[in-house]
Write a structure and sequence with these properties.
The radius of gyration is 15 Å and the shape is globular. Strand 4, helix 2 and strand 5 form a beta-alpha-beta unit. The model has no long low-confidence stretch (mean pLDDT about 95). It contains four helices and six strands; from the N terminus they run E-H-E-E-E-H-E-H-E-H. It has a single domain, classed as Rossmann fold, CATH 3.40.50.300. The chain has a six-stranded mixed sheet, with helices on both faces. By secondary structure, the chain is of the alpha/beta class. It is about 30% helix and about 25% strand. This is GTP-binding protein. It holds the Pfam family Ras. InterPro entries: P-loop_NTPase (IPR027417), Rab (IPR050227), Small_GTP-bd (IPR005225), Small_GTPase (IPR001806).
Length: about 160
């Protein structure tokens, strides 16, 4: 069976751990849990009858005090760049991370995850900004770890992009 390492990256408190819990265990908790270092989970996804074992590295969120350790990204086949739609600054962090990852590792498949879709009335990120990223060729998926909207889809899209490269 094919195994692929994927990483969850983004600012702190964007919902990376909640997305993994929803995807792997079909669970959601309102209780915030800070990731210390990295937490690793696995789940098999099927792409056109080909099972792929995703090794999911849930990496701590980046903030002004703690930057992403590039060593966690070694051997990564793709990543989910997670943004909290209710905090515009998390999109700025995502831009910075994407630039840094591309500078260090070249072009690795990724999907921009616009999380917290269940509370769009609180969003600070405009649709026009999301559309401009799509126009640039980025895959953008709106998700909600709480309701499950888009969660399976985003992992499937990333797995498909990885297998196409």
């Amino acid at each position: 069976m094919i195994q692929k390492k994927i990483c969850m990256v983004g600012a702190f408190a964007t919902g990376k751990t909640s997305l993994v819990a929803r995807f792997v265990y079909s669970l959601f908790s309102e209780k915030y849990q800070t990731t210390v270092g990295v937490k690793i989970d696995k789940k098999i996804v099927n792409l056109s009858e080909n099972p792929i074992n995703l090794i999911i590295w849930d990496i701590y969120g980046e903030d002004e005090l703690q930057k992403l350790q590039m060593s966690y990204m070694r051997g990564c086949s793709g990543y989910l760049l997670v943004v909290d739609g209710t905090r515009k600054n998390t999109l700025e962090t995502a831009y910075s991370l994407q630039n840094s990852l591309e500078a260090n590792f070249g072009q690795i498949p990724f999907v921009l995850v616009m999380n917290k879709w269940d509370i769009t009335d609180e969003w600070e990120i405009e649709a026009a900004e999301i559309n401009s990223l799509i126009t640039k060729g980025w895959n953008v998926v709106e998700t909600s770890a709480k309701t499950g909207i888009g969660v399976e889809e985003v992992f499937q899209i990333l797995a498909q992009k990885i297998m196409e490269t």
